């Protein structure tokens, strides 16, 4: 199972951009490969400590291990894909 | 905590620092503490936080970017801080912000809202008034976009200020700048620099307040200490000549010495220099001073730079001085350190701190000459000046011993003589093949004192000063004195014998004269007796003659007897 978690904080332009960028990348390049969850840390700040989130937005590839983190609004699709595919196969 | 007009100050509880800054760090504002690795930044910050909780009821948040929280807890535990307990009681929150650059890729624009959220949560959990960010610059190695970081750090500082949090931000010192990332430009209120220098293989920690907006503060470098008691800063320069003057005299423990001064001793709170060559008895005299204080029920402190405490106690026992008793009663405290153990500044700092803690009435520094070998002359002088001022300010009597290399020289390496109120010069002179200890009161400000060199005798009954023998040949000591005294005793005996002889002679003469008088008197008497006999025989003769004439006349039968007698008699 492959799982991505995107941590945002409220409805900031960066957060909104990251959410839409991630959706687009998954739909266009990785259809059906990832389960995506978006967590708003403003609603639940405890999770920031739990998952060691400092920068916003942060995309975490929780599975497969090892955990990888991408921070930023994910505006560069190619780079996002490269990083998501790292350590795989 | 707005205690004064202008900016409020939050006490750090760091000994000396709050005095230096007239209250502590600016309340509700960020302060930057910078310095190189290992100079005590984290300790400063944690002391600030823990004392805030303990002494001022201000909970705090410790944000660590480098060390793990467990490490910080165990680090400060060695200084007696129970950080884990405070965390458990929710008085302090630990927030570990760890970012491993290897597992993070940066794609596009981002901010550090996550840090803000975590900080906010921690602050709200404990109701924090104080925050520590240790060391926020680590973020620069975790994230590659410095522009974003700078903007975010500035935003963070503003955010902390807005919320009225008293914050300590630690930063590593950079080349030619206070911090590597130029954080000082974001913190405009208070910047403190910690330094750790090594000179002549001796390291000294120093603290300097680079900037403190809106308040007066000392600008010098102040030494600070990190030891088992935590972090303490020593504002050693904030001293002046405003000390109280005492009229009271104090006993030196050597009554003979006190007797050399009109009034019977040195004034309380004076500084007394005891100088002399090796083995002249400087330490012994100082120990007597200390013991005398203890005997009065006061406290005394003995800083020894050559002898270990036990050794000093043992040595003094041979003089019949039981220092161990006072030490056990905690009236006497020994601090034995080698001069090379600390730098001068640090020695000064330690001395002042220990004196402040123990509050003795007599302080002995034995010997101060130990410093002149390890430091620059001027520095030593300024250090001793500070000690003298400090002790005087507190009305503490200071005894400073000084090892002189030359017998005749009445000077000290550190040019201290003018600082001192009293100067006891101790000599150990060789005369005719023997060394004799001598003591001279070279100076005693504000009192008449003896000008004599006294012989200084140490025995198992303590120290005694013998009055010198003042003969025609000057003041004599030792065997010379004893020889002279013996000679005089002999001369005295001879003189007395002579007198007795003369007395007897006169007596004899008198007796002889008296005998002569008696003989003459006897002769006179004899002559008188002879004369009387003569007179008697003459009158008998006359009577006889008359009788004879009468008889004759009667026989002739002529004339009256009476007429005859009358005619013959005329």
From TrEMBL, chain A:
Gene3D superfamilies attached to this UniProt entry: Glutaredoxin (3.40.30.10)
Segments forming domain KaiB: 5-86
InterPro entries: KaiB-like, KaiB_domain, Thioredoxin-like_sf
Coiled coil: none
Pfam families, per database record: KaiB
PANTHER family for this protein: CIRCADIAN CLOCK PROTEIN KAIB2, KAIB-LIKE PROTEIN 1
Protein name: Circadian clock protein KaiB
Organism: Cereibacter johrii
From TrEMBL, chain B:
CDD domains for this protein: KaiC-N (cd19485)
Highest taxon, organism lineage: Bacteria
Record keywords, A-Z: Coiled coil, Hydrolase, Kinase, Phosphoprotein, Repeat, Transferase
SMART domains: AAA
Keyword Membrane recorded: no
Coiled coil (residue ranges): 476-537
Domain KaiC residues, every copy: 8-247, 248-479
Gene3D superfamilies in the record: P-loop containing nucleotide triphosphate hydrolases
EC number(s) stated in the UniProt entry for this protein: 2.7.11.1
PROSITE patterns listed in its UniProt record: KAIC
Pfam families attached to this UniProt entry: ATPase
InterPro entries hit by this protein: AAA+_ATPase (IPR003593), Circadian_clock_KaiC-rel (IPR051347), KaiC (IPR030665), KaiC-like_dom (IPR014774), KaiC_dom (IPR010624), KaiC_N (IPR047221), P-loop_NTPase (IPR027417)
Protein name in UniProt: non-specific serine/threonine protein kinase
Species this protein is from: Cereibacter johrii
């Amino acid at each position: 199972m492959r799982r991505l978690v995107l941590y945002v904080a409220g409805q900031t332009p960066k957060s909104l951009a990251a959410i839409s960028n991630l959706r687009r990348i998954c739909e266009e390049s990785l259809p059906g490969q990832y389960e995506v969850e978006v967590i708003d840390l403003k609603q639940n700040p405890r999770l920031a400590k739990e998952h060691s989130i400092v920068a916003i937005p942060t995309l975490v590839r929780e599975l497969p291990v090892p955990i990888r983190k991408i921070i930023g609004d994910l505006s560069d699709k190619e780079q996002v894909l490269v990083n998501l595919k790292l350590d795989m196969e | 905590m707005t205690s004064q007009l202008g900016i409020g100050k939050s006490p750090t509880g760091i000994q000396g620092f709050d005095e230096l800054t007239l209250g502590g760090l600016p309340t509700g504002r960020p302060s930057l503490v910078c310095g190189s690795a290992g100079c005590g930044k984290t300790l400063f910050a944690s002391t600030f936080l823990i004392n805030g909780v303990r002494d001022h009821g201000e909970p705090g948040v410790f944000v660590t970017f480098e060390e793990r929280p467990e490490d910080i807890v165990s680090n400060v535990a060695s200084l007696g801080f129970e950080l884990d307990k405070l965390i458990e009681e929710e008085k302090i929150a630990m927030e570990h912000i760890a970012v491993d650059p290897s597992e993070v890729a940066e794609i596009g624009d981002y901010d550090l809202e996550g840090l803000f959220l975590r900080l906010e949560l921690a602050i709200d959990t404990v109701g924090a008034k104080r925050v520590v960010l240790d060391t926020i610059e680590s973020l620069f190695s975790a994230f590659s976009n410095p522009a974003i970081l700078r903007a975010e750090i500035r935003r963070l500082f503003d955010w902390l200020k807005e919320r009225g949090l008293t914050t300590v931000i630690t930063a590593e010192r950079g080349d030619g700048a206070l911090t590597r990332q130029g954080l000082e430009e974001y913190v405009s209120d208070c910047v403190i620099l910690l330094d750790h220098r090594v000179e002549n293989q001796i390291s000294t920690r120093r603290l300097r307040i680079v900037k403190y907006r809106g308040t007066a503060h000392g600008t010098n470098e102040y030494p600070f200490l990190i030891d088992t008691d935590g972090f303490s800063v020593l504002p050693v320069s904030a001293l002046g000549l405003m000390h109280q003057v005492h009229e009271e005299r104090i006993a030196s423990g050597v009554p003979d010495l006190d007797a050399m001064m009109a009034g019977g001793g040195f004034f309380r709170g004076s500084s007394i220099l005891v100088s002399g060559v090796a083995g002249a008895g400087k330490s012994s005299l100082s120990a007597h001073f200390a013991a005398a204080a203890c005997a009065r029920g006061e406290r005394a402190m003995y800083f020894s730079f050559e002898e270990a405490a036990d050794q000093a106690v043992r040595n003094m026992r041979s003089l019949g001085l039981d220092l161990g008793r006072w030490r056990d009663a905690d009236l006497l405290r020994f601090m034995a350190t080698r001069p090379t153990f600390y730098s001068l500044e640090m020695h000064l700092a330690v001395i002042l701190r220990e004196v402040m803690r123990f509050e003795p009435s007599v302080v002995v520094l034995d010997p101060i000459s130990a410093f002149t070998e390890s430091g620059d002359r001027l520095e030593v002088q300024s250090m001793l000046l500070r000690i003298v001022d400090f002790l005087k300010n507190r009305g503490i009597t200071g005894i400073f011993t000084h090892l002189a290399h030359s017998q005749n020289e009445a000077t000290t390496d550190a040019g201290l003589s003018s600082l001192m109120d009293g100067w006891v010069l101790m000599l150990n002179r060789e005369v005719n093949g023997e060394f004799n200890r001598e003591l001279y009161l070279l100076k005693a400000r504000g009192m008449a004192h003896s000008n004599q060199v006294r012989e200084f005798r140490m025995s198992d009954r303590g120290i005694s000063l013998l009055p010198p023998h003042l003969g025609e040949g000057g003041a004599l000591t030792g065997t010379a004195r004893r020889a002279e005294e013996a000679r005089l005793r002999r001369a005295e005996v001879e003189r007395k014998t002579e007198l007795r002889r003369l007395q007897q002679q006169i007596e004899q003469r008198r007796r002889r004269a008296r005998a002569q008088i008696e003989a003459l008197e006897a002769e006179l008497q004899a002559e008188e007796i002879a004369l009387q006999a003569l007179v008697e025989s003459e009158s008998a003769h006359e009577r006889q003659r008359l009788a004879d004439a009468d008889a004759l006349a009667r026989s002739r039968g002529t004339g009256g007897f009476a007429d005859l007698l009358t005619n013959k008699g005329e």
